[in-house]
Amino acid sequence: MTFKPFAGLALIALGAASLAWPEISYTKDTHDAKLGPLEFTLKEKDSVRIPVWVGLAAIAGGTGLVWRRKQG
């Protein structure tokens, strides 16, 4: 049994997920301040947008890996 079909299925799943959720949000700490016993932290929300072509390319590549395995 080879690794290619599993990699293909993983690519298909990741491509479908990127099409379903095209934006990933995360929170990062930007500034810390200490004033005596008090501590302040500023958190900033940011997001990364995944282009549609990346999801489609992942699905096509995964399909190619799975299909090649079935052919040969």
List the helices and strands and how they pair.
Elements: H1 4-20, E1 23-35, E2 38-49, H2 52-71
Antiparallel strand pairs: 1-2
**What is the H/E string?**
HEEH
Q: What percent of residues adopt helix (DSSP H or I)? A: 40-55%
Described by its quaternary structure, the protein is single chain
Q: Describe the largest sheet.
A: 2 strands, antiparallel
Low-confidence stretches: none
Number of domains: 1
Whole-number mean pLDDT: 89
Please state how the strands of the largest beta sheet are arranged side by side: 1-2
Basic shape: elongated
| Strand element count | 2
Please compute the radius of gyration using only Cα atoms: 20 Å
Task: Tell me the span between the first and last alpha carbons.
Answer: 13 Å
Instruction: Please state roughly what percent of the residues sit in beta strands, choosing from under 5%, 5-15%, 15-25%, 25-35%, 35-45% or over 45%.
Output: 25-35%
Number of helices: 2
Give short descriptive properties of this protein.
35% strand; two-stranded antiparallel ribbon; single chain; alpha+beta; 72 residues; 51% helix; 2 helices
Task: Explain this structure.
- With 72 residues, this protein is of the alpha+beta class.
- It has one domain.
- The chain is built from two helices and two strands, in the order αββα.
- It has a two-stranded antiparallel sheet.
- Helix 1 packs antiparallel against helix 2.
- The longest helix has 20 residues.
- The two termini are 13 Å apart.
- The model has no long low-confidence stretch (mean pLDDT 89).
